[in-house]
Design goal:
Rossmann fold, 434 residues, two-stranded parallel ribbon, 7% strand, 8 strands
């Protein structure tokens, strides 16, 4: 990064640490960068003055395969062309596919060869496997077509219901609290069809009952009659349930024994199981385990076919899987809207704690220098759930030590995400206090 910046070239993608992306944005705003090589992160929520946008290709890997860019994504990025207050026009350019450029270069080179020398036929380069073709017509379609219609993806979650009930607690109508007023208004205002909104009302009732069974909500009888639904007073003030499976986490923590020496690490594994997978990290973990197993089996002179069969069974580490899978199956039976693939046991934060690794040690162990941002975001979410998504009654001194460890680790690496979250938390606390 330092070498690129010295030549006036910036790099901007999701794998970078936030502090590096912020540095590139500030230098670009000051006019110190001439070129920025980036992904579609430049098209969303970034104030970077750009005169010309150059697309290297019009397809994008969506996690499974390459697909042509959506009109909305293309126009979001292309809309960056033209600096407000500086340029009257912005330029959007797209390269031809790489193999076509190479074939054109070879053809021109062959034409430029001396006439007396026998010309060999130009061997054309073929497109790579899985290539999604595009041409000038594709470019024109993306320029002129209207953006795709936005589709509502409204989903109710335990954390959303919990937050809305807390909002009702802090608001009063004529001195009386209104049960589920914010929740009803949110469902009525969403862009789902009427039939779906009716179904959401029934689902919200199921979520409330589940929170009540878990001891997170309680019902208090009013002196004048009726009842008030409110959060359990024993929960810490900053308790939150922003993960889809936060309720599963709270209910499963009851099964752990705080006297067990592995209790803090097992609690950490349960927290990790409800987080989204950092795909690149898990793939590198599995590859490392396969390499170690292959070397050991080869030293034992195991036949090749048997070695390959054993290696195909290797996955990334999945601690507590014997506890997590049956308890999650039971949880799904009482919460039918939960998907079967929602739970994902893994060992990332636990590996850092067990092996006493620093952030840099972990990055070097798995050669993740180009994906530091992915690791940082995952550890930030882990810290957030560990500190705010686990009720205090489950936190032993060792668990508080783990929270302090991750806070110190994140602060040393890049405190921008942590500072922003703490700022938002303080605003929430001020709003609750007022």
């Amino acid at each position: 990064m330092r070498r690129f910046l010295g030549f006036g070239i910036g790099v901007h993608h999701a794998g970078l640490l936030p502090k590096y992306r912020l540095l590139v944005e500030k230098l670009a705003q000051s006019g110190l960068l001439k070129v920025i090589a980036g992904t579609d992160t430049l098209g969303v929520g970034v104030n970077v003055p750009i005169r010309t946008v150059l697309f290297r290709q019009l397809c994008k890997f969506d996690g499974e395969k390459d697909t042509i860019l959506k009109v909305r994504d293309f126009q979001q990025i292309a809309g960056r062309a033209g600096r407000k207050g500086f340029d009257e026009l912005g330029w959007v350019v797209c390269q031809a596919p790489a193999h076509e450029i190479e074939n054109r270069r070879r053809s021109l080179k062959a034409r430029a060869s001396p006439r007396g020398r026998s010309r060999k036929p130009v061997r054309k380069r073929t497109p790579p496997r899985g290539f999604v073709p595009w041409d000038e017509r594709t470019f024109e379609r993306l320029v002129t077509s209207p953006p795709e219609t936005l589709e509502s993806r409204f989903r109710l979650r335990h954390g959303m219901v919990f937050d809305l009930i807390q909002a009702d607690e802090s608001s009063r109508n004529g001195g009386r609290r209104t049960n589920f007023g914010s929740l009803r208004r949110l469902i009525a205002a969403c862009h789902e069809p009427a039939a779906t909104r009716h179904r959401l009302i029934g689902q919200s009732a199921e979520l409330v009952r589940a929170l009540h069974r878990a001891g997170i909500l309680r019902m208090t009888t009013r002196p004048a009659g009726g009842y008030v639904v409110e959060a359990d007073r024993e929960l810490q003030i900053e308790f939150s349930m922003h993960q889809d499976l936060s309720l599963y986490l709270v209910s499963t923590l009851e099964l752990l024994d705080p006297r067990d020496p592995d209790y803090p690490l097992d609690l950490l594994s349960l927290v990790e199981a409800i987080l989204e997978d950092p795909g690149i990290v898990l793939r590198r973990q599995a590859a490392r385990l396969r390499d170690e197993l292959a070397a050991r089996l080869k030293a034992e002179r195991m036949p090749f076919e048997q070695r390959m069969e054993r290696l195909r069974e290797v996955t990334h580490p999945r601690p507590l899987v014997d506890l997590i899978e049956p308890t999650f199956d039971e949880f799904r039976r009482t919460h039918p809207w939960v998907r079967g693939d929602s739970i994902r046991p893994k060992r990332v934060g636990r590996e850092l704690c067990e092996d006493f690794l620093s952030f840099d040690n972990f990055i070097r162990r798995y050669d993740l220098q180009r994906s530091e941002g992915v690791v940082l975001r995952y550890l930030s979410r882990l810290f957030k759930v560990l500190s705010r998504g686990v009720p205090d009654r489950f936190k032993t001194d060792a668990v508080f030590d783990q929270i302090g460890y991750f806070h110190a680790l994140l602060t040393r690496v890049d405190s921008s995400l942590l500072n922003e979250w703490e700022r938002l938390w303080s605003l929430e606390d001020q709003a609750d206090g007022s």
